[in-house]
Amino acid sequence: MFQNILVPVDLAFRPERRRALPVAVDLARKYGGQIRALTVIPDYGMPLVGSFFPGDFAEKAMREAEKELRDLVADYAPEDLVAGVEVRRGSIYQQILSAASDHGCDAIVLAAHRPEMQDYLIGSNASRVVRHARQTVLVVR
Ligand code: ADP
Questions:
Q1: What is the CATH number of the domain that holds 53?
Q2: What residue's CA is closest to ligand 1, atom 9?
Q3: Which of the four, 3, 16, 27, 53, has the lowest number of CB atoms within 10 Å?
Q4: How far apart are CA 22 and CA 92, in angstroms?
Q5: What is the pLDDT of residue 49?
Q6: What range defines the domain where residue 122 resides?
Q7: Which residues of the chain have pLDDT under 50?
Q8: What is the pTM assigned to this prediction?
Q9: How many whole angstroms separate alpha carbon 85 and alpha carbon 67?
């Protein structure tokens, strides 16, 4: 049923990682599919801010994020269960939606929000993904 599962991960936030990733891995195992991890480096779209950083700052950040994500995924999933690990830049929810459609994913598994934000039933990125995704979305609380 779910062959190609996208797991968006917020690297800045550790406990959340333990919620969505294992659920996605379980689903992939159950349905004989694979997971694909994604992290997005927010692009604040402010050239003035960007001009304060060295020219290769973004590339460095992307490389470091990819390594961190790769290591994190390896903690939860054997290699054969992982279709890919990817870092994108831009608007978080838009990049999640684009990645899901670019890779032909049939499901997206994400955590509802940061644990310290318990008053919110769902965070803004998660709610936008739920509202706009063409794929099945599983929100882990
Ligand atoms: P909150 O506002 O509490 O952080 P969000 O809706 O932003 O809630 O986060 C919920 C989920 O959205 C995260 O668990 C993660 O799956 C996804 N997400 C948030 N930020 C990112 C990011 N930078 N890259 C990839 N996924 C993210």
A1: 3.40.50.620
A2: 113
A3: 53
A4: 21
A5: 58
A6: 4-140
A7: none
A8: 0.92
A9: 9
